[in-house]
Amino acid sequence: MLEKALTGTKKYYGWMTALLAVIGVGFACYLWQFSFGLGITGMSRDVSWGFYIAQFTFLVGVAASAVMVVLPYYLHNYKAFGRITILGEFLAVASVTMCILFIFVDLGQPTRVVNVLLHPTPNSILFWDMIVLNGYLLLNIVIGWKVLEAERNNVAPAGWLKPLIYLSIPWAVSIHTVTAYLYCGLPGRGFWLTAILAPRFLSSAFAAGPAFLILLCMIVRKLSKFDPGKEQIQSLAKVVAYAITVNVFFFLCEVFVVFYSNIPEHMDHLKYLFVGLHGHGVLVPWMWTSMILMVVSIILLVNPVTRKNETVLVVACITVFVGTWIDKGLGMISGGFVPNPLHHVNEYVPTLPEILIAIAIWAIGFLVLTALFKIAVTIKEEVAGLA
Amino acid sequence: MKSSRRRFLKIAGISALGLGAKPVLDVLASSSETAAPKTTKGDNVLSAKRWGMVIDTRKLQSEEDLEPMIEICDKIHNIPKFENKNHEIKWLWAEEFKHEFPMQEPDFLDDRLKHMSFLTLCNHCEKPPCVRVCPTKATFKREDGIVLMDFHRCIGCRFCMAACPYGSRSFNFRDPRPFIKETDPNFPTRTKGVVEKCNFCAERLAVGKIPACVEVSKGALTFGDLDDPESEVRKVLRSNYTIRRKPALGTGPSVFYIV
């Protein structure tokens, strides 16, 4: 089936070449980082994780969201999603690939990465994160590939796939839970030290991921003869509507606990993000933008009239995606490090090479995603006799 | 033909899996099978059950009083000096009360105490969060309570820096060697991409010397075994009221302050 990714229209080749160019620029920056050290980034002694780890966190969510198409189809026998499970699974593959790359470029000594295997340490959450991420990647590659192959050959998927598919459902939840545990189990980091961090991560994931999938479905419909379907898109839109609402609700729970309890160590981070602290507040406009986007998206998605209008739905999905990206991809990590444990306020802003490396990893993700979607869509066209 | 190729791939796949899993299984299996390398303790090594330190801040009134300690520490541990504050490496340094003991600053604190410099270093916690999170055991707690770094094992993930509630850890954002004033051959220099911090002068204890900062402190710093009721530190702790940094977090710092 891989050969399907190698042939395509001029547009397809053009897009892939453009992605490769972006990857090339980022790779050059990475070589610089590799020889100089992480000093070329904006990270510091106080904000020791930055843009890379934030992207990783956000993308784990996008990856986990595949469960939102897999679960209704396989557990509730919601047939309509059978058409698009493969798209969800391949989106997960591309996202986890990006996650692993973001972790990798964040390492100070990348050549020693195997030490995590050579000296396995079960008390470290990072050890478990490695297991769940790689496991999830493998599960989605195997399941996606074998189910698609069966569809192509017009046979039922192999019986041994069923347990793997059922396993992939809790596994999806686990990847984002474990990722939240990286942060929420640390003493002295008041911003993350909250039991609702994992639920918050999951809710924003189940909003951002399906929103992105809706956009992808619409692109697929436009560029190919395969139509993911109106019903499918509308069902996904309902998932996004619930998830983004729950996400904002969880956030407000956090705000209540933090400010009603009036504990400074917990308040200061939220203050830093939303009103600034001791005259520092680079993220303030971003965080408010994120909040406004999320609220607007709730209005557009909960209201059936706007949700059912596909043009408005596109706007709503972009709003959800950007809103949750700012929340997690910008605020969530820096916010936990500022102020630092000694209560100094040292801000973090990513540098240009750091951003270029991050964009390159996104481009790798899109490259993988495009290739996989190309394969899936071509086969769907073939099966439907449209090719 | 096809089936034999398939069989070959199967066998190759399984053996690759086995090779990859071996180190993992080795660790899970009992370690007694492999003979541990023989180590012997030196004759004059200083040992304890749990090393600890008491800092008598009454004897360290000004920044100048702290300088000799910080200077000697920087010197013997090959700590670089960077222009860029983001890249800073700190093992032993000075902080004001509100930063040293955040949220513990009493209202109406005397101006002198408010602006006094307090010695800041790794607390060598009884239950160190940094050790808990390290994915490679590159940072570990020794049997004498000292939390150490293996600079050769550290992958530079900086999880320990996120976990430390005292900001005691530094990361080598670039090669530190060109920024070391005068390299001391008795202590390793570090490479870029690894984390480091105060080691309670483990290298000096091994040859019978107390930590350098304690040695030059003119009695302001007391170092000894917290587990031994007869030790000097325990005597000082008995006869003075001391505070520790963020005791509510349950980390059990081994550094005490007389204020």
Describe the structure.
The complex is a heterodimer of chains A (387) and B (259). Chain A is an all-alpha fold and 387 residues long. Chain A folds into 2 domains: 1-184 and 351-376, Formate dehydrogenase/DMSO reductase fold, CATH 1.20.1630; 191-199 and 213-350, no CATH class. Chain A contains 14 helices and no strands. The longest helix of chain B has 27 residues, at 2-28. By secondary structure, chain B is α+β, with helices and mostly antiparallel strands. Chain B is elongated. In chain B, the strands form 4 sheets. Chain B has a 3-stranded mixed sheet. In chain B, strands 2-3 form a two-stranded antiparallel ribbon. Classes of the chains: A mainly alpha (387), B alpha+beta (259).
Briefly, what is this?
The complex is a heterodimer of chains A (387) and B (259). Chain A is mostly helical and 387 residues long. Helix content of chain A is 73%, strand content 0%.
Number of structural domains of chain B:
1
Poorly predicted spans of chain B: none
Largest β sheet strand count, sense and barrel closure of chain A:
none
String of helices and strands of chain A = HHHHHHHHHHHHHH
Write the layout of secondary structure elements.
The complex is a heterodimer of chains A (387) and B (259).
Chain A: H1 10-36, H2 51-64, H3 67-74, H4 85-106, H5 115-118, H6 125-152, H7 161-184, H8 197-223, H9 230-261, H10 264-274, H11 284-302, H12 304-308, H13 310-337, H14 352-383
Helix pairs in contact in A: 1-14, 2-4, 2-7, 2-8, 2-13, 3-7, 4-6, 4-14, 6-7, 7-8, 8-9, 8-13, 9-11, 10-13, 11-13
Chain B: H1 2-28, E1 51-56, H2 63-76, E2 93-95, H3 97-100, H4 111-114, E3 118-120, H5 129-133, E4 139-141, E5 147-149, H6 159-163, E6 170-171, E7 195-196, H7 202-205, H8 212-215, E8 221-225, H9 232-239, E9 255-258
